[in-house]
Amino acid sequence: MVYRLAADALVLLHLGFILFVLLGGLLVLKWHWLAWLHLPAAAWGAAVELFHLYCPLTPWENALRRAAGEQGYDGGFIEHYLIPLIYPSGLTPQMQLWLGGVVLLVNGLVYGTLLLRRINPR
Fold first, then answer.
1. Distance (Å, whole) CA 122 – CA 119
2. % helix / strand / coil in the chain, to the nearest 5?
3. Domain hosting residue 67, numbered range
């Protein structure tokens, strides 16, 4: 039971991290100090998608699920939990490039806005 709860908590942490990667820049607009946390997180998130890296949280979750007597899963967190909700077919390398590009675009816009505000304060 403890291992299953830990695996479920790790899924929530993983989802929270992904949301922070995608939308954390919006928090940085209000709390500038968060950039110190968000920029490395966004860089990691983009790198995972663009270079098809394997997130270390996925094998950790699978190990916890196996310890709980459950079966783990193949692929990554996004393929297992999010892609079935968003796309009816599996994640392709091209989709991963698009996801990485979205991370870069959204965060580029946010940090560009911050830079412009710093250059031209009101």
1. 10
2. 80, 0, 20
3. 2-119
* Cβ atoms 3, 67 nearer than 8 A: yes
The rounded Cα 16 to chain-centroid distance in angstroms is: 8
Q: Return mean pLDDT, the chain.
A: 82
What is the dihedral angle through the alpha carbons of 58, 8, 13, 108, rounded to the nearest 10 degrees? 60
pLDDT, tens digit (0-9, with 9 covering 90-100), for 52-87: 888 888 888 888 888 988 776 666 665 566 556 544
pLDDT, tens only, 4-43: 788 878 888 888 898 899 889 889 988 989 999 999 999 9
Domain count, the chain: 1
Please report the sign of the dihedral spanned by the C-alpha atoms of residue 21, residue 92, residue 85, residue 69: negative
> What's the length of the chain?
122
Fill in the amino acid letter for 114: L
Kindly state the tokens that stand for 32: 């500038």
